[in-house]
Design a protein that fits this description.
Helix content is 8%, strand content 40%. It is mostly beta strands. The longest helix has 19 residues, at 2-20. It is elongated and about 145 Å long. Residues 16-20 have low confidence and may be disordered.
């Protein structure tokens, strides 16, 4: 009986061992890329390793397992596309960038092409506009003058000793007119009419040797009227006026003797003293420290660039100097720069080229003449004197 019981126990133990293997209550560790599911207690395994789940290599990282982080091989490295004017150096694969975009290398605009980048071909603005103005509508008078980009005036006599002044825009559209009635029957004797950059002055002589001087702006508004008792005027002597103003102040003077007649402020219409005028002139002077008559016969700060328009002492050559007085370029003739940044220069004193503010020639042989200059300090109109005394008017933008 005992033997039978022992046999039953042994059979039961054998069956249990067949069911549980080693008899361990397994604590499984999850399978990894290299190892199958494994018991932490007895080391028994189950199933297969998972195997690596590779993420493809990038520019900066090698091929890498998403689960375990194992790396294989080398990073691909960036495949760079060179920088352009609009984009920095850029990787074709990952889009990473390095550095900054290139700056445009601009070739100046010409009469045929707009400003163009030498690197990428991008364009900016329009070609240089060069327009020869037809001012034949001013013909037929006794005198005419183009004042600035927008205004010109024509003088004619009709009837006898009545002087008419008509103002036009540069397209020939009539704007307004005025007259000076100098008929002796009205007691008048002698007259003058002078235009400057910002205003004009009309004067009328009276028998008792007084002169009424009237200053108007270019909206034909009276700025100031002054009666000058002087035998210095007329009989070949007339009033003249500073072309530019000095902080608003201007001088009216005898055109023959240079004697001052009076001073006024063009902005306020107020008569000012000689002392006020002198102070205004001193405060607005832009003569640089480097200036000397031995070096330059003419020297004036350009209104558009940092350069100075200069001439040799005998004024036989004209050109540009920097703020230290160093000559940058000299020609037989040169103008100031207009508001659009262009100037006319001539190497032979006859044929004029167009240059930009970098002194690049942007137009060869634009016009011929004896002298070229700006019609006004602020504007785009050039006047070119001809040998016969006529003028060519050139609008450059």
């Amino acid at each position: 009986m005992k033997k039978k019981v022992l046999a039953i126990i042994l059979l039961s133990a054998l069956a249990a061992s067949m069911i549980t293997g080693c008899g361990c209550e397994h604590k499984w560790a999850k399978a990894t890329c290299k190892e199958p599911k494994t018991c932490k207690l007895c080391g028994e395994t189950e199933g297969e390793p998972l195997g690596h789940e590779w993420a493809e290599a990038t520019c900066e990282k090698p091929k890498t397992c998403k689960r375990c982080g194992k790396e294989s091989g080398e990073p691909l490295g960036h495949e760079w596309e060179e920088a352009t004017c609009e984009k920095p150096k850029t990787c074709k694969r990952c889009g990473a960038t390095e550095g900054e975009p290139l700056e445009h290398d601009w070739a100046p605009a010409t009469p045929d092409t707009p400003k163009t980048c030498r690197i990428c071909g991008a364009t900016e603005g329009d070609p240089v506009s060069i327009e020869f103005l037809d001012v034949s509508f001013l013909n037929g008078g006794t005198w005419s003058f183009v004042i600035n980009d927008d205004l010109c005036v024509k003088e004619y006599e009709s009837p006898s000793n009545v002087w008419n002044y008509e103002f036009f825009d540069l397209s020939g559209n009539y704007l307004y007119g005025t007259e000076l009635d100098c008929r002796m029957s009205n007691g008048h004797k002698g007259h003058s009419f002078t235009v400057t950059e910002d205003c004009y002055i009309m004067s009328m002589g009276i028998k008792n040797k007084t002169s009424t001087l009237s200053v108007y702006d270019y909206d034909h508004r009276l700025i100031l009227e002054k009666e000058v008792k002087s035998g210095k005027l007329f009989g070949g002597q007339f009033p003249d006026m500073d072309d530019s103003n000095y902080n608003g102040c201007k001088r009216v003077f005898n055109d023959t003797t240079g004697d001052p007649l009076f001073y006024f402020n063009v902005n306020t219409g107020r008569e000012v003293s000689e002392e006020e005028y002198i102070i205004a002139v001193e405060n607005s002077q832009d003569t640089p420290a480097f200036y000397s008559e031995e070096k330059y016969g003419y020297c004036k700060k350009d209104n558009v660039t940092d350069l100075y328009l200069v001439s040799t002492p005998d004024r036989s050559r004209w050109g540009y100097a920097d703020s230290d007085g160093n000559e940058i370029a000299m020609y037989m003739d040169a103008s100031g720069f207009n508001e659009s940044g262009y100037a006319l220069v001539s190497s032979d004193g006859r044929t004029y080229d167009l240059i930009d503010t970098e002194l690049n020639v942007v137009g060869n042989g634009i016009v011929q003449g004896n002298s070229a200059y700006l019609a006004s300090t602020h504007g785009n109109l050039f006047k070119i004197d001809q040998a016969d005394g006529s003028k060519i008017y050139l609008m450059v933008k």
